[in-house]
Design goal:
Blueprint (H helix, E strand, L loop, with lengths): L1 H13 L2 E4 L3 E2 L8 H8 L4 E4 L5 E5 L4 E6 L5 E7 L4 E3 L2 E2 L5 H8 L8 E5 L2 E6 L4 E6 L2 E8 L16
Parallel strand pairs: 1-7
Antiparallel strand pairs: 1-2, 3-4, 4-5, 5-6, 6-12, 7-8, 9-10, 10-11, 11-12
Length: 162
């Protein structure tokens, strides 16, 4: 019974994962530390270091990979996500045609994208919001969002701000 209740609570956390431009995804805010994240989502399924010694948390059920920057006191600075529950401005984006996603985002002011091609993948990067839509076969398969760098060339950490 205890497991079922905990799983139900965890499962509700997975639905409607709202992308908050310039801030993070769902309850994740840029600038959080590892313990802030584990307090919300529990221990990650994988915890490792990348080639730059940044700490990476991977959550299988959330389909998210979180990067904590070693040079920024291990603050959360980058999120890669592929959950079909991801929502931007109330609409899902994963597994949708990139042309449809761009059409839906245009009235919200998201129109400027730099396009890069890699084999069968294409990235659509919006610098103002530091987001990437990664597509394969014209469908969005992955979403990336990074902490914004301000006018002083410093990260604009959102966690702990009033």
């Amino acid at each position: 019974m205890h497991f079922a209740k905990n799983f139900a609570n965890f499962a509700t956390k997975l639905k409607n994962m709202k992308i908050n431009l310039k801030n993070g995804i769902d309850k994740l805010l840029f600038g959080m530390k590892q313990n802030d994240v584990t307090a919300i989502y529990g221990k990650p399924d994988r915890n490792y270091k990348d080639e730059d010694n940044n700490v990476i948390f991977a959550y299988n059920a959330l389909k998210m990979r979180l990067t904590f920057y070693v040079e920024e006191d291990l603050k959360l600075g980058y999120i890669v996500a592929s959950s079909p529950d991801l929502e931007l401005f109330g609409t899902t984006i994963i597994n949708k045609k990139i042309t449809d996603v761009k059409k839906e985002l245009a009235p919200k002011g998201l129109i400027k994208f730099t396009q890069e091609e890699f084999d069968t993948f294409e990235n659509y990067f919006n610098e103002e919001n530091w987001i990437i839509f990664q597509t394969e076969f014209d469908e969005v398969v992955k979403f990336e969002i990074g902490a914004i760098i301000n006018q002083k060339d410093e990260f604009d950490w959102k966690f702990g701000k009033k």
